[in-house]
Amino acid sequence: MRHLSIALLMSVSLGISALVPAVCLCEESLLDQGVREYRAENFEEAMAALKGARDKDPASSVAAFYLGLTCKQAGDYKAAAEQFRDALRLTPPVMDASLELAEVLFTLGETTAAKKALSDAEQGKVRPSAVAFLKGLVLAKENDADGAEDSFRNAAKLDPTLSQQTEFQIAILQARERKVTQARKSLKALIAMDPASEAASMAREYETAFTRLIEGHRPWRVIAGVNYLYDDNVISNPANDTRLAQPDKDNAFVGTFRIDYAPLLDAPWGVTAQYNLQSTTYGELDTMNTMVNSVAVVPSYSQRFGAVSLPISYSHVLLADKKYMGLASVRPTQSLLLPFGHIGQLNLAYTRREMLREPYLPEEDRDADIFGAGGGYVAPFGEGKGMASLRYEFSYDNAVGQNWVNRGHRLNVGGNFPVIDGLTLQLNGDLFAQEYLHQNSSFNKVREDTVYTAVAGLTWDITPNLSLNFQYNHTRAVSNIDQYDYRRNTITTGIEAGF
User: Fold this and answer.
1) What is the DSSP letter of 57?
2) 24 Cα distance to chain centroid
3) Which of 274, 248, 277, 250 has the alpha carbon at shortest distance from 260?
4) Where are the TPR repeats (predicted)?
5) Which helix (H) or strand (E) holds 248?
């Protein structure tokens, strides 16, 4: 038995001597001991021996490599990364360390450094199939779906034994990209490779989940709501108005009805559509009753770094049961995925406004082509339950009547804040400054308006399909023409149900 142990030690020593220059017997003994303990999965003993080997000979690249492997097994990835860097820096370098370094850097979330280490491993021809597989994981984390899928398929081509693992990763990748149908096909292919394997068992669970997702997805959703509204300045009377005979406070019933359509399409294409009806009926001021019918369609195209969408909408407004206004708009938008789940947005806008009643003066004709551009920033927080947003928009209202031609600057700040489970606080502030470009024919001055709006609301989701809402809205319009200078407060509360 003793002779067998000596033979084993000599065999290990001879293997290591092919990698490192000759070292003294005590250092070989510590290194041999550390390697033997590591291979026996006695990681605590291996750690002690390999640290001793490194202390005895800091120039040993093999000791650094095996100490890195041991630190990796112990879960100390930062220490492992340092040891792998030493294994590559020292002479002769242990090239396998480049792949190990890439793996621990990926685990630490340092994807840029991991890609550099993978590039070194590729150049050194270190385990090409493993390099390709890890490269796929790195690219998937960077949301490069196409590059990740190519790398996974290359890994399976280089090493067919990785086929099940690569098909599983591709399926998860496709599901994340909303390619649910393709994901199911990949999972079925994985199961067929080896039905009895653990990977196949896991794939069956995912395939069942995807099947339920497809079968259970409801593309249609109907939402209806009833609300009470108190409005202390229905007709936006100026603060110094002397027409006391005309009331400006009133109560109203607000009914809402909405139909949403969101089919489950394979990425990168997507589309949503919506029909919305809102009716406001006042108790006394029935001349201010409104009914708004709106339709919208939003086609979109997903990208690795965001999405492009093209919201198109049309609204038709009735005032006192008579045709009042039509609005058609298109708003091409580029959304950008930023670090930490934040979203940036850039958009252009065009709106055509048609007033459906004849103006009492040509200068008051509000038919217009409205051009705009803007940008926004959205920052989720609280594990995605909360959201803060900032938005700026420029508009040019090219009305037919010169009294309404203006340039506008809008700044909006808002946020949704979770209070307790199911209860959300909404806060929003809006500033809209309008610079009119011509002298007003009725007041003989160039009009300047600034409208400040503050909104505070609460939403309580009683069930996933039933919610209670409360909202307070304060508007202050400041104008150099008294007719357009006013204050207004509204309170709305109601219930909304989805089906």
Assistant:
1) -
2) 58
3) 274
4) 61-94, 129-162
5) none
pLDDT number for residue 246:
54
221-498 shares the fold of 2-215: no
Q: Is there a contact between 190 and 184 (Cβ–Cβ < 8 Å)?
A: no
* Distances, alpha carbon 190 to alpha carbons 177, 183, 247, in Å: 19, 11, 73
Question: What is the residue extent of each domain of the chain?
Answer: 2-215, 221-498
Rounded-to-integer distance, Cα 106 and Cα 391, Å: 35
User: Are 450 and 433 spatial neighbours (Cβ–Cβ below 8 Å)?
Assistant: yes
The pLDDT of residue 71 is 93
Q: How many CA atoms lie within 13 A of 350 on its CB side?
A: 4
Q: What is the per-residue pLDDT for 10? A: 32
Which residue is associated with the tokens 């304060």? 474
**Is domain 221-498 given the CATH code 3.40.640.10 in the classification?**
no
Strand-pair category, 486-498 with 466-479: antiparallel
Using DSSP, state whether 407 is helix, strand or coil.
strand
Quick one: pLDDT at residue 236? 78
- CATH class for domain 2-215? mainly alpha
Cα–Cα distance for residue pair 475/430, rounded to 1 Å:
9
**Phi/psi at 425 (nearest 5 deg)?**
-100, 130
Q: Sort strands 306-309 and 322-330 into parallel, antiparallel or unpaired.
A: unpaired
Cα atoms found within 13 Å of the Cα of residue 400, Cβ hemisphere only: 13
Q: What is the pLDDT of residue 224?
A: 96
Q: What is the DSSP string of 381-397?
A: ETTTTEEEEEEEEEEEE
Question: What is the distance between the alpha carbons of residues 244 and 234, in angstroms, rounded to a whole number?
Answer: 14
Predicted model pTM:
0.65
The total number of residues shown for the chain amounts to: 499
**CA gap 225, 497 in Å, rounded:** 6
Could you tell me which residues come within 8 angstroms of residue 335 by beta carbon, excluding any fewer than 6 positions away? 306, 307, 308, 309, 343, 344, 345
- Contact assessment for residue 169 and residue 156, using Cβ atoms and an 8 Å cutoff: no
Residue 493, token pair as written in the block? 């509360």
Burial label, 171 (beta-carbon count in 10 A; 0-12, 13-18, 19+) = buried
Cβ neighbourhood burial of 169 (10 Å; 0-12, 13-18, 19+): buried
CB 164, CB 206: distance < 8 Å: no
